[in-house]
Amino acid sequence: MASDPNDKHSKSGNQGEGDRESARHYNKDTRKFLKSGKVDKAAERAAEQDPQEARRSERAGRERAKEEDPAVHRDYDKAGK
Q1: Rounded distance between C-alpha atoms, residue 35 and residue 27, angstroms
Q2: Would you tell me how many other CB atoms lie within 10 Å of the CB of residue 27?
Q3: Residue 29, class by beta-carbon neighbours within 10 Å (0-12 exposed, 13-18 middle, 19+ buried)?
Q4: CA-CA to 42 of 20 to 30 Å: which in 11, 23, 76, 80?
Q5: pLDDT in tens, 8-53
Q6: Residues 6+ apart with CB under 8 A from 11
Q7: What is the CA 1 to chain-centroid distance, rounded?
Q8: Separation of CA 11 from chain center
């Protein structure tokens, strides 16, 4: 018997989009990072990044992406100002 992809109680382990387990892990790790006291330091490092380097990094990441979100726009010249 084939498993039903719409069955929320499927044993396949793949929860699909809106994966609650992954969301829990992400939220836990985010809270841990916020409590670590490293947020300000990370923000300062990000603000110091050269806008050209940020563009190159973004371009490299987009080349690996399956598709691009048309709603996303980043202005690296505004960062850190």
Answers
A1: 12
A2: 10
A3: exposed
A4: 23
A5: 555 666 677 778 888 999 999 999 999 999 999 999 988 888 999 9
A6: 3
A7: 36
A8: 27
